[in-house]
Amino acid sequence: MRTAVMECRVLSIQSHVVRGYVGNKSATFPLQVLGFEVDSINSVQFSNHTGYAHWKGQVLTAEELNVLYDGIKLNNVNHYDYILTGYSRDTSFLETVVDIIKELKKANPSLVYVCDPVLGDHGAMYVPEKLLPIYKNKVVPLAEILTPNQFEAELLTGKNISTEDDAIKVMDLLHEMGPETVVLTSTDLPSKRGDQFLVALGSQIIRKPDGTSTCQKISLDIPKVDAVFVGTGDLFAAMLLAWTHHHPNDLKTACEKTISVMHHVIKRTITYANGVAGPGNKPSPAQLELRMIQSKADIENPAVVIEAKVLQTSMDKKC
Fold first, then answer.
1. Are 205 and 145 in contact, with CB atoms under 8 Å apart?
2. Active site amino acids
3. Does residue 133 fall inside a structural domain?
4. pLDDT along the chain (319 residues), means of 10
5. For the chain, give me the number of helices (H) and strands (E)?
6. CATH code assigned at 200
7. Is residue 89 part of a domain?
8. How far apart are CA 288 and CA 275, in angstroms?
9. Which pLDDT score is estimated for 2?
10. Residue 183: which of 266, 116, 101 has the closest Cα?
11. 1, part of any domain
């Protein structure tokens, strides 16, 4: 059923945990379920995510990353259709990732780089500030698909988002930096459906052979869940990669399927966590680990439960 996808290979450079789902553990299984071959490089290897009371592990250095990539290259198996990156907190490591992406794009000019620019959230950075100029000047310009949250989009553009028009302008600024698909995975904008919904927005430019372009901008209202989940951003980026592959010129459908996968996984997770924790008890980080394996059918064929609204569609030589 997915023979065309089976030839697609993804290089995913993200964190890894022994227990639970974050980084590569959150991205690899869903991509494999959808038929993608996934080669994983673990930027860190931790016992569990850092939201637990205790965690142990190791961090991959830039030199060690180069050693792993050299092994792939020496065997002449360094051909990829997609690159997916997430959390990184070291400048030399991020610079090495940039060098690898450039080399792989030379080998395959049609390679698509999906970048989740993990910088922070809710007004606070949780990576060193010196990473920001590397993202702005070197990483984002290489990306075809970018998935920042509102705070990250504001950091990258230097513009605040207070209204939907602000968000549209920020997405346009991000387009000017390089990516042709931008999705603001979450914002603080008010939903017309009430306080129980988060607003996500997306924008896609489709280049045509005659030099013209089509732009589409969409918004989605996402039901809020009163719990803290880890690894959802990594799952989102992986699913957006997969569904834009299936619907390359239809951001609306790709986002609807991506968000619907998220909805099903989170709903199953919170139902399980509340059941295990018991009435009146707050679920623990271990109980709130994403129910990924149990959601296999929803990942493969998500029932669309969240529909996107088209904000605007334009055809112009410059979008």
1. no
2. 234
3. yes
4. 63 97 97 97 95 96 97 96 94 97 96 96 92 97 98 97 96 97 95 92 90 90 91 96 96 97 96 96 96 98 94 66
5. 10, 12
6. 3.40.1190.20
7. yes
8. 11
9. 43
10. 116
11. no
